[in-house]
Design a protein that fits this description.
By secondary structure, the chain is mainly α. The protein has 6 helices and 2 strands. It has a two-stranded antiparallel ribbon with strand order 1-2. The protein starts with 18 loop residues before the first strand and ends in an 18-residue tail after the last helix. The N terminus is likely disordered.
Length: about 160
């Protein structure tokens, strides 16, 4: 199950080094939570394989920790199912691209609703609630707070 060319024991560089907890023990849960999706199945497979060694070495002792062949089989099934859903890095890029396009379409739809519905409905409150309608109009103004995308201005001469 381990992908060729990938060392499952080496996850540094992917924000997965276990951090030290207050009692000095390594926090591997933190490392797994911060592992990239594409590497999580490899890490789970390493955990499965290590657990399998422990179960074979001392099955009676491992049942005290609810670590049985049936649990390992369930874990292996979950790893296989997860691996098939993660896909390739290219599939992830394509998925993000589709989501980005969907977000743009949703923003366009929401803007149309604001302009065609809410902006027109607010007019009925203008006479009785001018403070409210002024606050609404002010809130609807878009403030460009970022840097410019034009030419860089010439710095002043000292």
């Amino acid at each position: 199950m381990i992908r060729s060319g990938h060392n499952p024991q080496r996850y540094d560089g992917y924000a997965t080094r276990p951090r030290e907890s207050s009692d000095g023990a390594s926090d591997y849960a933190y490392a797994l939570k911060n592992l990239r999706d594409s590497l999580l199945d490899d890490a789970a497979q390493v955990i499965h394989d290590e657990a399998a060694i422990l179960v074979v070495a001392d099955p009676v002792k491992m049942t005290e920790f609810n670590l049985t062949p049936a649990v390992l089989a369930d874990l292996q099934s979950a790893i296989i199912a997860y691996s098939s859903t993660v896909g390739t890095p290219r599939a992830a890029v394509a998925g993000r691209s589709g989501i980005t396009e969907a977000i743009a379409a949703e923003i366009t739809r929401a803007t149309a609703n604001l302009e065609n519905l809410l902006d027109r409905l607010i007019l009925q409150f203008q006479a009785d609630h001018p403070t409210f309608t002024t606050a609404y109009a002010t809130a609807r103004k878009i403030v460009q707070a970022g840097g410019s995308h034009g030419e860089n201005p010439t710095p002043p001469t000292p």
